[in-house]
# Entry
Amino acid sequence: MSVENALGDLNELRTFHRILTLGSLSAAARDLGVGLAVVSKRLASLERKTGQRLVHRTTRRLSPTEEGAALLPHVERVLDEIAIAQARLASGAEAPQGVLRVAAPISFGRIHLAPVAADLVARHPALDVELRLDDRLVDLVETRIDLAIRIGPPRDSQAVMRKLVDNHRILVASPAYLDRRGRPTEPGDLAGHDLLRYGDDIDPWRLVGPDRAIAEVPARPRLRADNGDVVHDWALDGRGVAFKSHVDVVCDLHIGRLEQVLPAWGSAEAPVYALMPSSRHLATKTRAFLDAVIERLRGFGVAAD
# Structure
């Protein structure tokens, strides 16, 4: 398939993009403010120019063919660049434009990225944000991710990286729980407390303390969940002590809903990084989102220098 031949008519490219984004010809027609026949004609023209069938047509929802999926990222880049150029000409300055796809761990995304995304799209009408929250790692290029958040040392050697937070895991519990059960003064005191765990791990909690001292706590849980937010909620509800990433509980520590247990002890460092596909220039939409995330983290006093 020749991408060059596909980039002839911007209306056809916009129509192709809206069809796949919205999932139907009629929805694309409404969004573009044209008739259904116009949308069908534009798609047919684009498929004729590329010499490929680009869209699977079913009775339920349209989806890209293999060739259409390959073409879509090129179309999105072209449309984004045009939108940025138009905004620059209209206002004299760049504004965030197009669709920004962000991948992040579930808890970090819910706590920090969701508010940033909602605020940015409210301030920039031409910007759309898609959050993809999953604790599993994703391939940035294959999934067309513009910005990914990773906790711990990144593995993507080809990606552009920026450290956001000097993070580590800490012990937390609600003030009501600690008033009721007492406040531990050393790691061994945790043996008499209700512990909350995330995942299937059965290894002891490994704590690093003053002068790099190491303590291992046999963390046999009273409650366990395969979702970190559930463990977080249990801690807020006074059900016990959790071992959580600092950046995930910083909001609740800030307003006093959670209290740090054994403040001198925590896990080894697990910094939070932003990863972006390698490129010469950082897109305006990505830069705006990243700056807003850093500003939010700075407000809680945890942003990296």
Summary: The longest strand covers residues 98-104. The radius of gyration is 24 Å.
